[in-house]
Specification:
Structural class: alpha/beta
Shape: globular
Radius of gyration: 20 Å
Number of helices: 9
Strand order of the largest sheet: 3-2-1-4-5-6
Distance between the termini: 90 Å
Strand content: 5-15%
Largest sheet: 6 strands, parallel
Bound molecules: adenosine-5'-triphosphate, magnesium ion
Order of helices and strands: EHEHEHHEHHEHEHH
């Protein structure tokens, strides 16, 4: 009897790309942002992280920021030569108030319906997400990657995450990220008082700030 030949059936599998979106004001970008993106890239196995600077952040309308052009240039210096880091000018080009649900809809259109989109946030932002415009769409349609930021309260975070999972069935992933006690607010305050930002921001960004006289009041 002829021996049957085993045929390996290779099932073609489409592995959809994973993209992280890191929205922020980046006024200025600092190592906390870079480190959050890098940890997300490595720990979640993202193919890319897209940084999206806001034109006007809805919760910061009473605050004057450096121009979109300056914030964008600083971001470009900060992500230059970093594999997997990209920048989208979508919100700056749209102008006006930047709403994340509109940006995420646009990213979905751009990257296609099979792309896996993760919005990356620090704990402070995620804890406020239910107050964002159209948050129910955001929480139903997209996944989240949370990096902890010094000062957050674990119980508050756990409560918020389990409520959101219950209501919207949201996929929420946690990073075991490097804790960096850095904020743009602190950097701006230091620069206003003439104190160097030390090692809180990339050297090229610090040089750019000095050259353009930013945050000097
Ligand atoms: P500001 O003090 O002006 O609000 P910021 O430092 O909070 O600035 P944003 O541009 O507001 O920076 O933050 C963009 C995103 O990056 C948010 O999701 C925020 O939680 C996250 N993020 C900022 N700094 C850190 C940090 N040190 N560690 C982890 N996540 C951070
Ligand atoms: Mg902030």
């Amino acid at each position: 009897m002829e021996k049957g030949r085993a045929t390996d059936k290779v099932v073609a599998e489409t592995v959809s790309e994973k993209t992280g979106i890191l929205g922020g004001t980046f006024d200025p970008v600092h190592l906390g942002h870079i480190s959050l993106a890098q940890d997300a890239l490595e720990q979640i196995g993202l193919d890319r992280v897209i940084f999206i600077p806001a034109a006007q952040q809805p919760f910061k309308l009473d605050r004057k920021t450096a121009s979109g052009e300056h914030r964008l240039e600083m971001l470009k210096l900060a992500v230059k030569d970093r594999r997997g880091f990209e920048i989208s000018e979508y919100e700056l080009q749209e102008k006006g108030i930047s709403y994340t649900y509109l940006t995420m809809r646009a990213m979905r259109r751009l990257l296609g319906k099979d792309a896996r989109l993760y919005f990356i946030t620090g704990t402070d932002s995620f804890l406020k997400i239910e107050k964002w415009k159209n948050s129910s769409e955001l929480l139903r349609e997209f996944s989240y990657i949370i990096g902890t930021r010094p000062g957050y309260r674990q119980e508050e975070l756990d409560e918020c995450v389990s409520r959101i999972r219950d209501i919207y069935n949201t996929e929420i992933l946690f990073l075991n990220n490097t804790q960096l006690d850095i904020s743009s607010t602190e950097i701006r305050e230091r620069l206003e008082r003439g104190i160097p930002s030390g090692d809180l921001i990339p050297a090229e960004v610090e040089r750019y700030i000095t050259e353009h006289g930013l945050y000097r009041n």
